[in-house]
Design a protein that fits this description.
By secondary structure, the chain is mainly alpha-helical. It is 66% helix and 2% strand. α3 crosses α6. It is a multi-pass membrane protein.
Length: 279
């Protein structure tokens, strides 16, 4: 439940994760705090659906644990209620896993839409606009260019200005955005990026859609499978509670039998004594 809540509401945690996991010294741009926040929002569109599901499952599992506790120490019938609740949660969890692993990109739909929006709105780094800085930093962090590739910036409807400024240099008439360059290959020489863009000095052949998928899906796989492990543990605990209940019932029955036998013996002894004295 805690993990789900963090994934849904904690932008600070997601932003920190973005900085520590994806920020590298070779990134070509000096980041702005607001750009990190926008990128954190972008990643949260991926984690939020899974986070909501995990939060709900965690809440229901916590509720089932409370019901099981009540069942053991107070009302035995509540253990059966807990078992039914865990079964319903398990069924829903299996359905979720089936949907997720059959079409994982469903969870990335909103992120893909936001990424396409940023590509259309991108102008240049020197424009100092939020959308441009956010996408520029994102491309530089993930070593990608555009949505599918760098040609997306030359499509109809985009706002790419075809010029930029980096350090003390101006770069007019460039074919692709400056953040598509690999940092160590940015320069003024004729074969450097952005004077010339190719697969060795830039990322123009690598789209950010595929990079986003490759970065987020392994994390989601780990979270989904991990949550299934937690559910299995809860089911095991529920079975143990049921076994303990049966053991307790057996002990109660045995105790009743022992008490009854003891009472019968006392009755026979009393009758014998009475018979002795009266005889």
């Amino acid at each position: 439940m805690l993990a789900g809540g963090v994934m849904v509401w904690s932008r600070v945690f997601v932003g920190t994760l973005v900085q520590t996991k994806f920020w590298k010294k070779q990134v070509a741009l000096d980041p702005q705090r607001e750009s990190y926040d926008r990128i954190a929002q972008l990643f949260q569109t991926v984690t939020r659906p899974v986070g909501i599901v995990l939060f709900v499952i965690g809440f229901l599992l916590s509720l089932s644990a409370i019901i099981g506790f009540v069942g053991i120490y107070h009302l035995r019938m509540m253990i059966f209620v807990e078992a039914i609740l865990v079964g319903v949660i398990a069924l829903g969890h299996i359905i979720l896993m089936n949907v997720y692993f059959s079409n994982r990109e469903v969870f990335l739909t909103r992120s893909y839409d936001e990424l396409q929006h940023l590509v259309r709105k991108y102008k240049s780094i020197e424009s100092n606009e939020k959308d441009s800085w956010t996408l520029g930093l994102f491309m530089s962090m993930l070593n990608c260019c555009g949505y599918l590739n760098g040609d997306d910036f030359n499509a109809k409807g985009t706002q790419f200005t075809r010029r930029d400024h980096y350090l003390v240099y101006d770069y007019p008439n460039i074919r692709y955005p400056l953040p598509c360059c690999k940092r160590n290959n940015i320069g003024q020489s004729a074969d450097s990026c952005p004077q010339v863009f190719n697969s060795s000095n830039s990322n123009i052949r690598v789209g950010c859609k595929s990079r986003l998928y490759n970065k987020t899906i392994p994390l989601l796989n780990f979270i989904i499978l991990g949550s299934f492990g937690v559910l299995a543990l809860e089911a095991y605990v529920s079975c143990e509670q049921e076994a303990n209940k049966r053991d307790c019932d057996v002990l109660v029955i045995e105790k009743k039998k022992t008490t009854k036998v003891s009472q019968n013996r006392k009755a026979h002894i009393t009758e014998a004594l009475v018979g002795t004295f009266t005889g």
